[in-house]
Design goal:
The complex is a heterodimer.
Chain A (H helix, E strand, L loop, with lengths): L1 H22 L5 E2 L1 E8 L10 E9 L9 E2 L6 E13 L2 E12 L3 E5 L3 E6 L5 E5 L3 E5 L5 H8 L4 H31 L20 H14 L3 H14 L8 H5 L7 H15 L5 H16 L1
Helix pairs in contact in A: 1-5, 4-5, 4-8, 5-7, 7-8
Chain B lengths: L9 H11 L4 H13 L3 E4 L6 H11 L4 E5 L6 H5 E6 L4 E6 L6 E5 L6 H13 L1 E4 L2 E4 L5 E6 L12 H4 L4 E4 L5 H11 L13 H13 L4 H15 L5 E3 L5 E3 L4 E3 L3 H17 L7 H12 L4 E2 L2 H4 L4 H10 L5
Parallel strand pairs in B: 1-8, 1-9, 2-5, 5-8
Antiparallel strand pairs in B: 3-4, 6-7, 10-11, 12-13
Helix pairs in contact in B: 1-2, 1-3, 2-3, 2-10, 8-10, 9-10, 9-11, 10-11, 11-13
Classes of the chains: A alpha+beta, B alpha/beta.
Amino acid sequence: MVRIRRLIAALTLALAGLPLCAGAQALQRLTVQSFTLSSDTATPHVDVPFHLVVTLHVRENIGSIGNIELPLLASLDLLGDERQINAAPGGSTYREIISVTAHTPGALAIAPAVLQAVDARDGHAKQYSTNGLSLKVVGSPSTAPLLNVSQGASVGWAFAWVGIWIVVIGATIAVVVAIARRGATADVRNAPPVVDEAPPLPPRTLEDQLRDALLVLRADPQRLTAVGVRGAVWRAIGADEGETLSAVLRLHQAGAEPMRTLLIALERAAFTYDADLPNAIEDACVALEHAIE
Amino acid sequence: MSEARSTREPGTLVAALSETIVGQRHVVEALLLALLSNGHVLLEGPPGLAKTLACRSIAAALDGSFKRIQFTPDLLPSDIVGTRIFDQRESAFGTVFGPIFANVVLADEINRAPAKVQSALLEAMQEHQVTIGPQTHPLPDPFVVMATMNPLDAEGTYALPVAQMDRFLMKVVVGYPTRDEELQILDRFAVADTQPLRGVATLEDVAAWRAQAHAVHVDEKLKHYIVELVAVTREGDRVRVTTAAGRSISCGELIDYGASPRATLALANLARARAVLAGRDFALPDDVRAVAPDALRHRIGFNYRLATEGVAVDRAIDALVSAVPAP
């Protein structure tokens, strides 16, 4: 759980870094050639880890990448996050591999990752987005046979099942190893994402985004998280991040009372003094709950 | 945040002043912000816009003393701070205190007096004390100077030097009332003079509110925002504004010099005071942005091109302030 919280915090840091860096006008100058989000499977199994891969190719030789906002993965458990940069004079490739598991079967929509950078070609600050992903989580393959065994089938059948499963698991491992080897040796620039042809994402509702925000704020009730959630909620209702609260409250989507209370509560959480912060964040969480309702 | 708290809220003072003064909400709030920030206000507006009434009302509401000084070309420093007079019966010099010894001092048409008189007043504003003969006398606390200037009539005036202008915490432009407000003025003042409300708060309340304002939390992000706002006034080249002819020009072409570090302090103090007025103990970007025009207006040195290009001062300031994204 601690690990998950750390990862959520890391994601939130990326989220929070966006407005702060943008505000400080510290965006990197990049020539973005491609920016994609892919998954190593289109049909992940319940409780079986799979990987989401964010890949960015830029023309510059860079040592680090900032201002990448990863999608909020509220319905997934985060198991790990690995970043690599292959820098070269002719260009650099940034790869971030996020290991996750799903716990419930059904359709799973993953929002695009976002990068803010100054376009080296024209000097303008721009926001780049990856594709989104639409996956289908299917039930665990181990459920049926285990139930059969527990229901008291004959010992011979049980052995047969175990044998079959050893073969299946062996084959799966072989496939995974083969995929991993291919991924390690292939030129990343040319490797097509597995789920490139995913159907267009259903639009994420404001409620979805507020649920994500609540999850993140509950998991990591810190100032930086509150600032990041404030920025995410502002973007979700179409507000400009450089504005002040009074300007945001004049927006149509901020007019309804639960949203108004939420925006005020998030403003307090972002700017109040340290001793008041736990209460301010709790109030913001309650306001988020009301806004979701 | 356990500062001494007044049982009354400063908002009650705003409400009470609104009973007397029709409209001019911005002016009333500005006067209170200056009171809470221990600063002084320069009011600019044509005659007849209730500037004097606002100052008199605020003094009455606090049960404090009020003095008005009409600045004229023949005014002397001793007419303001006081003088020493030889008492023949006592065979000794006695001190006669000038009208500066009051809680609220209205310096009417401050730009009509020569520089030595202006500097006598401004020295008192800065030091909160005056020296008459060999003795130094502290001024009452709170001590707020509300100076007025008439922008329409420049003949026979002495422009305030930049350094002296900088000592005013804020410069507030007083505008004409709306039609509805003017109808209310007719109803309220045509028959009989409305007397300012007395005793709405006390001078002790003001001291408590000031302590509250002093304790208001200003987040690091907000401090950076304030510094950026002041910095952009010195780097006007990165901001563009549209002229009356519809041409886009850089603000740098309109500005000779930007705001001083005193503006940085003024923005922070005014934001704190505004937070107290709103019943908060932490400041928000909204507070800073709301007070920015009044805190910066008199501290930016605009040149002649502002007039020739037909750009209003407030539009240029708005362009500068809008160029800095709020945290």
